[in-house]
Amino acid sequence: ISYKFKGASFPQGRKILTLRTPGAGLGTCMLLPNIGYNPSSFPIHFIRNSNAQVYEDTAYNIPRIFEAFWTQAKVMGVQTNDILDNNGLSNDLTTKCLVTGEGCIAPNLRPPATRVAIDFNGPTRRGGRVTQSADVTLLESSVQGSAADTYYTTKTFSQYNVNQDLQLFYKEVTSLRRKENDAIDGKV
């Protein structure tokens, strides 16, 4: 996948931006950790389960997105919420695994996750590097399809950056459109 920053707007003006605003500081919006940056292309995965449902491989994708947008950071470990049973998800996290999948004891690292926590090593504003943690929970999600192969999602998230004791809430609106050559064009 490749991203290209095309612009941002501030309907209430730039004066309301602080480091407590999601996206104003590096890593404060897990899904776009460095708003305005154009990362190199990177892979993302989707999984088809036994019921032919397709969902995002959160345990694989979040570390790739995070490192692509914040190239000075390195994700050290990832956890997702575990499957309770075939009917739902638990809010409990799996054991911590390396982003390569090594060290995973739980066999269900890749269920359709609504929560992901990462440990990452990255630079700080005061200088030096430190291992930090972030925990993101999907609070609400809606999906709409329409004619002409267009697909829209709206997701609301809560993110807690542990080291900064920073709780953030944000909404991601995505539109995807299939082009004639089977490529996908999207906007976040």
Quaternary structure: single chain
Q: For the report, how would you describe the main beta sheet?
A: 7 strands, antiparallel
The secondary-structure element order is EEHEEEEEEE
Return Rg in Å. 17 Å
Number of E strands: 9
The amount of helix comes to under 10%
In angstroms, what separates the terminal alpha carbons? 13 Å
Coarse structural class: mainly beta
Shape: globular
Low-confidence stretches: none
State the helix count: 1
Strand order of the largest sheet: 4-3-5-6-7-8-9
Q: Strand-residue fraction?
A: 35-45%
Average pLDDT: 81
3D structure, described in words:
It is a single chain. This protein has 188 residues and is mainly beta. The chain has one helix at 58-69; strands at 46-48, 54-56, 74-85, 88-93, 115-123, 129-146, 150-161, 166-178, 184-187. It has 1 helix and 9 strands. The longest helix has 12 residues, at 58-69. The radius of gyration is 17 Å and the shape is globular. It starts with 45 loop residues before the first strand and ends with a strand.
Summarize the structure.
The protein is mainly β and 188 residues long. 6% of the residues lie in helices and 43% in strands. The longest helix has 12 residues.
Chart the SSEs and their pairings.
Layout: E1 46-48, E2 54-56, H1 58-69, E3 74-85, E4 88-93, E5 115-123, E6 129-146, E7 150-161, E8 166-178, E9 184-187
Antiparallel strand pairs: 1-2, 3-4, 3-5, 5-6, 6-7, 7-8, 8-9
